[in-house]
Amino acid sequence: MKHIAIIMGGYSSEYKISLVSGNVVYNFLDQSKYKGYRIHIFKEKWVYVDANDAEFPIDKNDFSTTVNGTKITFDAVFNAIHGTPGEDGLMQAYFELLGIPQTSCDYYQAALTFNKRDLLSVLKPYGIKTATSFYLNKGDLIDTAEIVNKVGLPCFVKPNKSGSSFGISKVKTAAELPIAIEVAYKEDNEIIIESFLDGTEVSVGVINYQGTITVLPITEIVSENDFFDYEAKYLGKSQEITPARISDEMTQKVGEIAKRAYEILKMKGFSRSEFIIVNGEPHMLEMNTIPGLTTESLIPQQAKVAGISLEDLFTNAIELALNN
Hints:
- By secondary structure, the chain is of the alpha+beta class.
- It contains 10 helices and 18 strands.
- Strand 13 and strand 14 form a beta hairpin.
């Protein structure tokens, strides 16, 4: 029986969603193969939380815990932390140093994909299209005319390193730009301002399934709000249609681009890339390496359409980590 630590929580605004994802993993683990342990990772404490919600501290020296005098170590880690420190490479590097297998990509890939600006600049030479963008770092002079001249209106202002659409604004007039920039700076000290892409938004899951890089059925996102924001993602303000209502040719095209990005970056584990299709050309927005795993989340929805149960999805991730 393998001992699997399921890490959840984290240090960002996304910690509540991560706790839900982590509990879904815990509840759907194949109990004939694995004993799951819920590990909460917060700035103020790292603890193992047992079935009665009692907490036992984690020893960061070797990532172990002691319960009633018995030391427990883990065969592998299932990473369900969205945002820092689970999605930006910190936990990946820590587990690599300790020699503990974990289910997500390696630390460099995590850091790179978590940084939207860097991710897109690495993929651009491979012919992967993106929105026109303008970068700002905290303290930079804000020249509204220069920004509007480059990206046009409407545009999107986003924190460079954050998820679940925290801190993102759609800006329709030049006067709204400084306010949107302030909102984004609450989440990150780097900002990406992107041209508005008017097209069909799709989300493409790519995973290594039983040793083969596999594109899952694609989801089309139809948001009731101005864009696929936090409310749309988690509060039901969007329609998510899997498989997407796009032609077979376009399904093939966007799937191949997402798969190519996965291969170019030497990814492992889960990935979910967001695209907007404009005039028959998919434009990449970002890639998530610890996508939501709640029962409503996109990857579980896509796996279901592909005939992959949550138990199979999680078993696959753990086995790949153990055999790596």
